[in-house]
Design goal:
One of its GO terms (molecular function) is acyltransferase activity, transferring groups other than amino-acyl groups. By secondary structure, the chain is of the alpha+beta class. Helix content is 43%, strand content 19%.
Length: 267
């Protein structure tokens, strides 16, 4: 009989300073952060290293603001032996779509303050990536229909009738495809976003990351929703094992130098 090694509870504001060491030794080591927080030399030129102090100051503020945002949920994992929950071992931030917020959360609770909790990267995602992954590609059904129904000759009346008939059939088929596509993208727009999942390096590979991820996915599944994330370089196989599938890339435009950026959905 197996015993439970870890337990998870909702994060508290007092947890946030304790989470930064986990963040800086895991996620902040990704190449993304050399793009976002480059360490400048004495001449003001950016180098290949992260400005840790600038990053810590910025992310501490962002985490505190997220805590008061109605859309964000912080979960923190501890050892079962840590009865006072003094030493966090891992944490996750999930962002809920507006449709999943209760009236109390939106208007009556302290969370209704809803301060800005975005980062430079999240603003890039909102501006450059989300329009593409949440909006189905536009199609010109009329043009598609005409391309299949235009007569080639006045002398081929019977064949023309067949072509027109096929065009109408194709039009209906395209309409059904468009409806299914819109339904799929509507589900994506209501998906939960895994913003952050970080585990102490010494505990990576022990199952703690999977344990914390499944904890968050249970809330997603209970609401019948989808989930998505943008993966750092090298962690895509971990998320594939949990049912996520790559649907696009976020390392485009100003982020084209980033080696990570797989956009992954669990639909």
């Amino acid at each position: 009989m197996s015993t439970q090694t870890y337990h998870v509870r909702p994060g508290r504001l007092s947890d946030i300073p304790k989470l930064m060491p986990i963040f800086t030794t895991t996620i902040a080591r990704d190449q993304l952060f050399t793009i976002l927080f480059p360490l400048k030399n004495s001449h003001g030129d950016s180098g290949p290293e992260v400005d840790i102090d600038a990053m810590k100051t910025y992310m501490n503020r962002v985490f505190a603001l997220r805590y008061w945002s109605p859309n964000f949920r912080l979960s923190v994992a501890f050892s079962v032996d840590d009865v006072e929950c003094a030493t966090p071992l891992a944490f996750s931030w999930w962002k809920l779509p507006d449709s999943q917020l209760s009236l109390y959360e939106r208007w009556l609770s302290p969370y209704g303050i809803n301060p800005t909790a975005s980062t430079m990267f999240s603003r890039f995602i909102e501006r450059e990536i989300e329009p593409a992954i949440f909006t189905p590609p536009t199609t010109d059904s009329k043009s598609r229909s005409m391309s299949t129904s235009t007569p080639s000759s006045q002398d081929e009346n019977d064949e023309d009738e067949v072509k027109v008939g096929n065009g109408n059939g194709n039009e209906n088929e395209h309409a059904r495809e468009d409806a299914e596509e819109e339904k799929r993208y509507a589900r994506r727009r209501q998906a939960f976003y895994l913003n952050t999942l970080a585990v102490l390096p010494s505990l990576q590979g022990t199952g703690l990351g999977s344990f914390l991820l499944r904890h968050g996915l249970r809330a997603v599944d209970d609401r019948g929703a989808a989930a998505w994330l943008i993966a750092l370089a090298g962690v895509e196989p971990f998320y594939r094992r949990q049912g996520f599938v790559e649907v696009g890339r976020a390392n485009v435009g100003e982020m084209s130098g980033w080696r990570g950026g797989a956009i992954m959905f669990r639909e």
